[in-house]
Each structure stands twice: as structure tokens, then as C-alpha cells.
């Protein structure tokens, strides 16, 4: 498990250090550096494996250096404990390797079928857009999931059954059937007998998150952006609980979110003893006057109560309610 990530000279991350736990939640206003931290981990992971490490559409290294950085500065990253590793150039092959599964906020919505890369590694790769999710589910059909991630105490431990049970919190009565046609490099899903395009966005967006949380090996880091996308508040809360329970199995979860419901799902899981409060940490990102990222760290006690509540940290609901309760206009 990564216990710390420190980044310098990468986009808005002029100099940022974040402690990581089994579950790390990244929050804050838009364009404050949350996704940039995950992007740095993705570049680091690719470089460590000797793969192409520039991210498609993001430009070359010169496009990613912090505005106002010293002449000749390069993006630097450090993984582990601050006392153990030196900063390394982000695009050089570093050590140690990271087994990283990343799901983008821009993952695929409802589609009649999904193309599979012929070189797909069916052991771990769901794809950043969730494009391999049906094949991933098919490959894991029949396996057992860890006890800590079970939906309830009397649940069946089968992977397929657990996907079904967690889906009920999002859309009761939902049944999903997956099919892989490897000869044509495609896979597809049916939801209650219908094509995904005839059902809606929420289930297609949620399915890769649920599958990863239940099916990734505990040696992996699961980084996911906006797992709450297109979900009802009850489904967002359930997604927070699922990610907390997945973190309790040994899978390291890094989640970027704008959802107070997802946050509260995690807090409820902590209160219910499904994840130790010592295994969760919350970071609030903001920009200073120079447009550089600063990070405030928040912890939870065993009852899910947070140690701090910075201005802007999921407080808009209370602000709006206060305005609605006020007299006059």
C-alpha cells in the first residue's frame, strides 16, 4: 500500500504532499488539482512498467509543468514514505511499480456493445473508460469475493451474486447479463433483458465501479473519478459504503468525488464498523492566490464524525438551507 505521495512542479501541484490510507477521498472545487494527483500516479505507474507514460490529449512534459516554476524545473513525484525515497523525474522509469486500475469520470455510458482490445489482460484491466467491464465480469464469474466486501452478513460470496446485490441499492430488481465474443473482440450487456441504451446512464456508469471494487486483487490500487455519476442519492450513499468495504479487504481505494452522499456512505460504513476510521483519510483541495494547489487533511473518528469541516468542503447544502430558512429575499 502507498502511504504517501508527494508531487512537485506538476500542473497546479507546485508542492503537495498527501498521506494515503486504505481509502483516500479527494474533494474540492473544480480545477483544483484532484485529477492531477491521480494523473501523476498514472504517469508514474506507466513509467515504472516501461510503458508510454504521456497521457493522451494532455500534451508533452513541457505542457504539464507548473506555471511559475523555476527555469529548468521538471515534474517530480515520490511514492512511499518521505524518509524512504528520493523525488524522481515523473517521466523516468521509477521504482517501485504500481498496480493501478484507473476509472475515468469520462467512462462509457450505455452502448449496445463494447470493443475489447485484442491484447486485453483479462486478469485486471477494466479499462479507463470501463470498456472491458463485461469481459472482466465474465472472466470472474463463479469466483468468491472477500468476506469484508459482502453486501450483507448472509450474502452469497459469489462474484456474480454480489454484483446483483449491490446493484439493488441503485436500482431494485435490476439483473445484468454479460456476454463476451472474443472472436470479434467485443462484449455486451443486457439490463433486465434490454439493451443498455434503453435503460439509462446510471447503471452503465456504476457497473465498472462495482465490478472493480468486488473483483480487483488486494495488491491493486483502485483510482476512480466520480463514482457517483448519474446515481440517485441513495445509490451514491451505497457506492460510498461499497468503496469503504472494498478498502477493508486490502484493496487501496483513491476516490475523487463531488458527492456529499458518497462521503456520508463512507462515514456510515466507518460508524458501522465496516472500515476502521484509522484506514480512511479525506483531503480537501483548493487554490491559493498563485493558482497553486493547497490541501487540507481531515480525519474521522470511529463514529464517522469528521475532525474538521473546511469552508467549501461539502457545505453547500447547509448554505442553501440557511438561505431558504431566512426570512425575506
Could you describe the 3D structure shown?
The chain is an alpha/beta fold and 329 residues long. It is built from 7 helices and 13 strands. It has helices at 34-48, 133-140, 159-168, 201-215, 233-248, 260-271, 316-325, and strands at 4-10, 13-19, 23-28, 76-79, 88-89, 100-103, 114-115, 176-181, 186-191, 221-225, 252-256, 280-287, 293-298. The strands form 3 sheets. A 6-stranded mixed beta sheet has the order 6-10-11-3-12-13, with helices on both faces. Helix 5 (233-248) links the parallel strand 10 and strand 11 (252-256). Helix 4 (201-215) packs parallel to helix 5. The longest helix is centred in the C-terminal third of the chain and has 16 residues, at 233-248. It starts with a strand and ends with a helix. The model has no long low-confidence stretch (mean pLDDT 90).
Question: What is the secondary structure topology, with strand pairs?
Answer:
Elements (H helix, E strand, L loop, with lengths): L3 E7 L2 E7 L3 E6 L5 H15 L27 E4 L8 E2 L10 E4 L10 E2 L17 H8 L18 H10 L7 E6 L4 E6 L9 H15 L5 E5 L7 H16 L3 E5 L3 H12 L8 E8 L5 E6 L17 H10 L4
Parallel strand pairs: 3-11, 3-12, 6-10, 10-11
Antiparallel strand pairs: 1-2, 1-4, 4-5, 7-9, 8-9, 12-13
What structural keywords apply?
single chain, 329 residues, alpha/beta, 6-stranded mixed β-sheet, 7 helices
Low-confidence stretches: none
CA-CA gap between termini = 52 Å
**Rg, Å, rounded:** 20 Å
Which structural class do the helices and strands define? Answer: alpha/beta
Summarize the biggest pleated sheet.
Answer: 6 strands, mixed
Number of strands: 13
Mean pLDDT: 90
User: Total helix count?
Assistant: 7
Q: How does the overall form come out from the CA principal axes?
A: globular
β content, as a range?
15-25%
Query: Helix-strand pattern, N to C?
Result: EEEHEEEEHHEEHEHEHEEH
Percentage of helical residues?
25-40%
Give the strand order of the largest sheet, numbering strands 1, 2, ... along the chain. 6-10-11-3-12-13
Amino acid at each position: 500500500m502507498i502511504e504517501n505521495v508527494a508531487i512537485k512542479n506538476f500542473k497546479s501541484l507546485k508542492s503537495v504532499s498527501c498521506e494515503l490510507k486504505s481509502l483516500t477521498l479527494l474533494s474540492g472545487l473544480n480545477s483544483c488539482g484532484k485529477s492531477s494527483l491521480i494523473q501523476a500516479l498514472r504517469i508514474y505507474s506507466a513509467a515504472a512498467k516501461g510503458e508510454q507514460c504521456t497521457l493522451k490529449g494532455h500534451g508533452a512534459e513541457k505542457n504539464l509543468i507548473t506555471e511559475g516554476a523555476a527555469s529548468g524545473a521538471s515534474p517530480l513525484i515520490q511514492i512511499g514514505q518521505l524518509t524512504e525515497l528520493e523525488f524522481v523525474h515523473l517521466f523516468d522509469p521509477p521504482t517501485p511499480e504500481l498496480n493501478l486500475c484507473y476509472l475515468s469520470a469520462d467512462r462509457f455510458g450505455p452502448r449496445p456493445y463494447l470493443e475489447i482490445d485484442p491484447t486485453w489482460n483479462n486478469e485486471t484491466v477494466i479499462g479507463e473508460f470501463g470498456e472491458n467491464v463485461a469481459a472482466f465480469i465474465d472472466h470472474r464469474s463463479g469466483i468468491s469475493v472477500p468476506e469484508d466486501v459482502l453486501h450483507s452478513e448472509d450474502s452469497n460470496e459469489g462474484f456474480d451474486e454480489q454484483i446483483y446485490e449491490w446493484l439493488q441499492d441503485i436500482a431494485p430488481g435490476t439483473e445484468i447479463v454479460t456476454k463476451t465474443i472474443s472472436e470479434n473482440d467485443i462484449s455486451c450487456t443486457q439490463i433486465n433483458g434490454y439493451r443498455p441504451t434503453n435503460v439509462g446512464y446510471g447503471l452503465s456508469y456504476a457497473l465498472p465501479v462495482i465490478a472493480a471494487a468486488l473483483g480487483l486483487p488486494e495488491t491493486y490500487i483502485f483510482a476512480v473519478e466520480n463514482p457517483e455519476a448519474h446515481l440517485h442519492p441513495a445509490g451514491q450513499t451505497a457506492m460510498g459504503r461499497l468503496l469503504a468495504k472494498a478498502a477493508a479487504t486490502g484493496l487501496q481505494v483513491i476516490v475523487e468525488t463531488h458527492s456529499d452522499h458518497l462521503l456520508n456512505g463512507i462515514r456510515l460504513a466507518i460508524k458501522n464498523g465496516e472500515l476502521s476510521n484509522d484506514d480512511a483519510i479525506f483531503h480537501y483541495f483548493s487554490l491559493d492566490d498563485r493558482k497553486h494547489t493547497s490541501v487540507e487533511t481531515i480525519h474521522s473518528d470511529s463514529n464517522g464524525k469528521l475532525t474538521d469541516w473546511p469552508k467549501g468542503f461539502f457545505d453547500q447544502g447547509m448554505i442553501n438551507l440557511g438561505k431558504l430558512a431566512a426570512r425575506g429575499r
